[in-house]
Amino acid sequence: MTRLALLYVDDDDDIRTVVEMALALDADIALRVAASGAEALTAVAGGYRPDAIVLDVMMPGMDGPAVLERLRALPATATVPVIFMTARGRQADLDFYRARGAAGVIVKPFDPMTLPTQIRALL
């Protein structure tokens, strides 16, 4: 399997910890985390080049769709696949995220044991 440079963005400390532990089970994922959209954009502006991004939808300051819009405006991340992670799992919500260009959506609560496989399947 190809090593995947993955940026995970979520403002919730507990969920970030669970995701970090879950993705640590996959030695082929090189994980970098950000606690906000602004922190993710700073990482990209500083030269970090993820292969994919998992982005929480509901964050203070700048929500996931706003971060995605900013990422799409940057040459380095214009085509990087983005997966949204959200507690809003209604079909209308899923359709909205996909219409914004998401490669997929993971609905919370998620199964930590299958998270790496789920992310790869969406990519």
Give structural attributes.
123 residues; alpha/beta; Rossmann fold; 5 helices; 5 strands; 21% strand; globular
Characterize the structure shown.
- The chain has 123 residues and is an alpha/beta fold.
- 38% of the residues lie in helices and 21% in strands.
- Strand 3, helix 3 (64-72) and strand 4 (82-86) form a beta-alpha-beta unit.
- The mean pLDDT is 94.
Oligomer: single chain
Low-confidence stretches: none
As a percent range, the share of helical residues equals 25-40%
Order of helices and strands: EHEHEHEHEH
Number of helices: 5
Shape by Cα distribution: globular
How much of the polypeptide forms β-strand, as a percent range? 15-25%
What order do the helices and strands come in, and which of them pair?
Blueprint: E1 4-9, H1 13-24, E2 29-34, H2 37-45, E3 52-56, H3 64-72, E4 82-86, H4 91-99, E5 104-107, H5 115-122
Parallel strand pairs: 1-2, 1-3, 3-4, 4-5
Helix pairs in contact: 2-3
Briefly summarize what is shown.
The protein is an alpha/beta fold and 123 residues long. The protein contains 5 helices and 5 strands; from the N terminus they run βαβαβαβαβα.
